[in-house]
Write a structure and sequence with these properties.
nine-stranded mixed beta sheet, Dihydrodipicolinate Reductase, domain 2, 9 helices, alpha/beta, about 25% strand, globular, Gfo/Idh/MocA-like_OxRdtase_N, six-stranded parallel beta sheet
Length: about 400
């Protein structure tokens, strides 16, 4: 065992937490961290712990586990509505925090967490993995150098396939609230949250005070409370505009992307692949690929070497403005039966909105909301023109 490895506790090791468990195993093999404890409602089995070497402590009580292990970092990958309270537990014990996105389900909870983090003097990194990509800074540098001329706006699109069982993956899945607590598990705020967060970082307006306004259209084809097909327009205090169109009712699974529109070309970031396409009239498309820094490794480097955090809590304030807008918006509009069909997938039935894949692309291309694109099921009135 590496004596210099940073002791880590993982809170939430099942579901998406399996990704974090595998990542901790990888970083432990590199000697960077060691898994000191796991906080889960039920202990992990020997099979789930395979390859981790020394068996970590396990407990359903995070505070007790931190007292027992003295862990320096806690990775929290638990239901959205528990993020704030578990963050407070971590802060109270002076441990540092890697918190899965979205950081909190409301602006008020975000402010409370920010106060807890500041009072404890701990580091808090938010798990927007796409923001660890070197492609983000590369695009900002190309824009600043005039590669695509003056920026007209940024579009984001994501069209994913999710079966009906996805919404039953956990008791809180597909809920706006549960037991009187905010959850906000919609397509914009959770599964395709990276699309908006990445666009905000590229635009350079990722702090709460940099957002002038947020408009959303929320729809659902599935029998859930939250939105599964939505769009948003975010205007920044710097005069920028971001329009996102996303769905979990796609005809085919697609790669999400962010596109920066300039008056002399465009830059498209396929953020899961860390690939950037530069397109300019009359010239061949230039494709570049970039590396990515793991956010837990970056947090360790921050603590040991003073490296700047890639996704500190305060730089997710703008995204939380979107979460708050979704939280306080009217209930998602239920799409009529004629607007969607049922397809059979490998894991069961799923609801599909015909034509939605093309609509998400068109929204990102034209910087337009679904209602502005003439989608027959879009019942939102088009917002008034924005004076510039």
């Amino acid at each position: 065992m590496n004596a210099h490895a940073v002791p880590v506790v993982l809170a939430g090791a099942r579901g998406h937490g399996r990704w974090h468990l595998a990542n901790i195993r990888r970083l432990a093999d590199e000697g960077l961290v060691r898994l000191a404890g796991i906080c889960e409602l039920g202990p992990l089995t020997d099979e789930e712990l395979a390859g981790l070497g020394t068996v970590p402590e396990q407990s359903p009580d995070l505070g007790e586990l931190l007292d027992r292990t003295g862990a320096e970092i806690v990775v929290v990958c638990t239901p959205i509505h528990t993020h704030g309270e578990l963050g407070a537990v971590v802060a109270a014990r002076g441990a540092h925090l890697l918190l899965e996105k979205p950081p909190t389900p409301s602006a008020a909870a975000f402010d409370r967490l920010a106060r807890d983090v500041a009072a404890a003097g701990i580091a808090c990194q938010i798990g927007f993995q796409s923001l660890g990509s070197a492609a983000v800074d590369a695009i900002r540098e190309q824009v600043a150098a005039g590669a695509i001329g003056a920026v007209r706006g940024i579009g984001a699109a994501g069209a994913w396939v999710r079966d009906e069982a996805y919404w039953r993956r956990a008791p809180w899945g597909g809920h706006r609230s549960l037991g009187g607590r905010d959850v906000v598990d919609g397509v914009l705020t959770n599964p395709l949250a990276h699309a908006v967060a990445t666009a905000l970082r590229i635009e350079g307006s990722d702090r709460a005070e940099q957002i002038a306004s947020v408009d959303v259209e929320l729809y659902r084809a599935n029998d859930i409370a939250a939105d599964d097909t939505s769009c948003a327009r975010i205007r920044t205090t710097a005069g920028g505009e971001i329009t996102a169109a996303v769905t979990l009712c796609a005809e085919r699974d697609g790669e999400p992307y962010v596109v920066v529109h300039g008056d002399a070309g465009r830059l498209t970031l396929w953020y899961k692949a860390d690939r950037v396409d530069l397109e300019r009239p009359g010239l061949p498309t230039l494709t570049s690929r970039y590396g990515r820094t793991d956010l837990l490794a970056n947090l360790v480097a921050h603590l040991r070497e003073g490296a700047p955090l890639l996704v500190p809590l305060e730089r997710t304030g703008a995204f939380t403005r979107l979460v708050e807008t979704v939280r306080t918006a009217p209930e998602p509009a239920e799409l009529p039966c004629g607007a969607w069909t049922v397809a059979e997938g490998p894991r069961g039935p799923r609801r599909v909105i015909p034509g939605i894949d093309a609509l998400t692309d068109e929204g990102a291309r034209r910087l337009a909301l679904y209602s502005e694109l003439g989608a027959p099921w879009a019942r939102y009135p088009a917002p008034p023109p924005h004076d510039t």
